[in-house]
Design goal:
The protein is built from 12 helices and 4 strands; from the N terminus they run αβαβαβααβααααααα. The termini are far apart. It has a 4-stranded parallel beta sheet with strand order 3-2-1-4, sandwiched between helices. Helix 3 links the parallel strand 2 and strand 3. The chain is mostly helical. The chain has 2 domains: 181 residues, Rossmann fold, CATH 3.40.50.620; 61 residues. The longest helix has 23 residues.
Length: 267
């Protein structure tokens, strides 16, 4: 299902404008990964704040030249400030604490994401700016992000848009075509792609998530009040692999804790 692209762009821009005015900031700090979501955020912030007030940080782990090249492409396209900081030495330092950690892709990926956010927040202090998040609704619903890593930010301008919708507005925002066309990846290890890790295309995942949202919203229910099999039975149809639906619902349940504030004991 297509969205009203111009209307969604206007909503995103008004949201950015209102948040920056309310918080009394005028500079945006963005991790530019070379992927679609961060490119869209750069485009939106440049339009609202002016490119001179947008600071893009390229934070590679080692020397992934393709992502670095694409990150430069985004910075060039929208004329923003850029800085390159290789996070490899900081992440590598964890070898001294636990050598086997580098053999666990998920753990080292989380360390990379949190190292990047340490740098972004440090730079936000340097430039007196706000860290702008790049997560979309698909990632947020699935918990497909690192808590206190790429999940940390001051605002999420595309947090209400599914991944497939972000791709639609990217075209209107003149995001470079190579970035629109490339396989989505968190860039956490060589050859990693989101769709391979998630087990389905974003088109299929978003279709499932929309049905999940519609079903639970209409009944005013949360997944906590439903058995796992109930959710699957009411979301699945003959166009979707039952195993994929099961995996997506399991991810929502497993990662729900990431979307909650820290639990504080009441007085």
């Amino acid at each position: 299902m297509n969205i009203d692209i111009e209307r969604e762009i206007e909503k995103c821009e008004l949201f950015i404008k209102n948040v920056f005015e309310y918080k009394k900031f005028n500079k945006a700090i963005i991790g530019v990964s070379g992927g679609l979501d961060s490119a869209v955020i750069v485009a939106l912030c440049s339009r609202v704040l002016g490119p001179e007030n947008v600071y893009g940080f390229l934070l590679p782990f080692g020397s992934n030249q393709l992502d670095i090249k694409d990150s430069h492409l985004v910075c060039d396209q929208f004329g923003i400030n850029r800085n390159i900081i290789n996070i490899y030495p900081a992440v590598e330092a964890f070898r001294t604490t636990e050598e086997n950690i580098l053999f666990d892709a998920a753990r080292i990926g989380n360390i990379q994401a949190r190292t990047r956010m340490i740098i972004l927040y440090d730079q936000s202090a340097k430039y007196n700016g706000l860290v702008v998040g790049t997560s979309n609704l698909t990632e947020l619903m699935l918990g497909y992000f690192t808590i206190y890593g790429d999940g940390a930010c001051a605002l999420e301008p595309i947090g209400h848009l599914y991944k497939t919708e972000v791709k639609q507005i990217a075209v209107e925002l003149s995001v470079p075509q190579p970035i629109i066309d490339k396989a989505p990846s968190a860039g956490l290890w060589n050859g990693q792609t989101d769709e391979e890790q998630l087990g389905a295309s974003y088109e299929t995942i978003d279709y499932i998530l929309k049905r999940y949202h519609k079903y639970t919203t209409e009944l005013n229910l949360s997944f906590r009040s439903l058995e796992h099999h109930e959710l699957i039975e009411n979301i699945v149809d003959n166009t979707i692999d039952l195993r994929v639906v099961d995996k997506i619902i399991s991810m929502i349940k497993k990662n729900d804790f990431k979307t909650k504030l820290p639990t504080i004991m009441r007085r």
